[in-house]
Amino acid sequence: MNAKDPATATQQLTAADGGPQAMTPSEAFVETMVANGVSEMFGIMGSAFMDAMDIFAPAGIRLIPVVHEQGAGHMADGYARVSGRHGVVIGQNGPGISNCVTAIAAAYWAHSPVVIVTPEAGTMGIGLGGFQEAKQLPMFQEFTKYQGHVTHPARMAEFTGRCFDRAMAEMGPTQLNIPRDYFYGQIKTEIPRPQRLDRGAGGEERLNEAAELLAQAKFPVIISGGGVVMADAIEECKALAERLGAPVVNSYLHNDSFPANHPLWCGPLGYQGSKAAMKLLAQADVVVALGSRLGPFGTLPQHGLDYWPKNAKIIQIDADHKMLGLVKKISVGICGDAKAAAVALSQRLAQRTLVCDATRAARADQIATEKATWEKELDDWTHERDPYSLDMIEEQKQERTFNGGEYLHPRQVLRELEKAMPEDVMVSTDIGNINSVANSYLRFNKPRSFFAAMSWGNCGYAFPTIIGAKVAAPHRPAISYAGDGAWGMSLMETLTCVRHNIPVTAVVFHNRQWGAEKKNQVDFYNRRFVAGELESPSFANIARAMGAEGIVVDRLEDVGPALKKAIDLQMNHGKTTIIEIMCTRELGDPFRRDALSKPVRMLDKYKDYV
After folding, report:
1. What's the predicted TM-score (pTM) here?
2. Where in the sequence is the domain holding 112, given as residue range(s)?
3. Are 349 and 286 part of one and the same domain?
4. Interatomic CA distance for residues 434 and 509, integer angstroms
């Protein structure tokens, strides 16, 4: 049986079994996944779970084989973030499972309800140093909300169900660890019904305090975070913003948390974000952080602006009470669901006279002016403005052209890609300099559209994540951004797309370097470049060899048409396309200026290295 809705699946199952019944542990495992709406999972086949894998298909579960297990974990992450349901990843015990650690860490910081199933060495061999034996629970304990270890075959359904429940309840990855011999035998068990929480708005007293602060605010600003997306609270956030006439800024790497076509939208905060958003936030006397943990990296100074309002009253709303006041000093902390809390605040403000009503029109004009100024700056930004990059531009004059083509400036490319983006698009970005600069150019009108590695910041994230997103939403255009360094870590999953008919579009910014780290060598190490060069063959040619389409872009006027062609191939012909964009080596603002300083050398032989 197969049903994506857990309630429907459970009804079918209960009607069929009438209570506890005899089955194998493998059947209990599979039926519990079916009860939780699992229809796709990602991984590489292995003998450790082959008995269960043998019945995936008749249960209506599609196992999508990948090239590398890290890719499977990222695919499960992308699947979960688009669908709002569990993403599931599985692999062979030992090395197959250890390959997933990075992906599960990324899912943890993205608050994705990913369930990783980790078959383990058999109970009779544990501790003997056998083949592919490892202690698999410690590997993931820092990056999971719950770890379920099946202690007896008869408890297979119990632990499986709990892992799925806890992933949704705590919005993060869980681990289901199963000794490989526990898939076999006969047990009598009942498949548990999925348990889902109803989340409330928060305490009445705190909500009233927040409403009073907002009623007295002269310049309120809303930060719309990832919790708004996860709670499906876009409309409720819009209603609250419209009641206040408040500018809305996206929290870092949550560019899909408020529609860019709304007049109150101002763009994202954080690294390479919107100057308009930052300048408006700087004026706030009351800030509503709706569904945001206010992560430290997402509120750092940027573009020379130390924009966080030091004297503003902060109202923070988060479903996890441990996040309240953790990073920023707050005036009111509300432990509640972003949607329910936004509704509760709007209701409290509906009949009240607000101080900010008197300046609503002036504030709207200021929002429009700041946004227009920022857009004009982006249009005109054809080179980086800091002196180090200007020096680099001079050095590059001789290498602007190659084989009749031209190296393109990343910002101009990003602007052209933005203009060519299709409606309802999903975009994932990798870590790196150009991808980070893309933060200024990625705008969305629909939630569950933008996916980044968040605080984990690992390379090789974007491409497999967009593959998982495409599996969950095959009707939506899917695009990933990666630099050549990150692409080298993930390009092998092109084979997954070709082998299993999962068409996506990958944009590769080929600038022949590790840009983010090289920028640090420019700014802090007197341009001593070590290990930063990445000379590579044509990625478009590699794509063609794998059975995908490959397009090389070396003229600015070809950027938009290339993306449109790739999307047509994806949506109408089922074809994966790799767009290789030949970029200059100009670099954006440094990635970790907050964490680096000019070196001091003590030994004589190193004193010149300052």
Report:
1. 0.93
2. 21-189
3. yes
4. 7
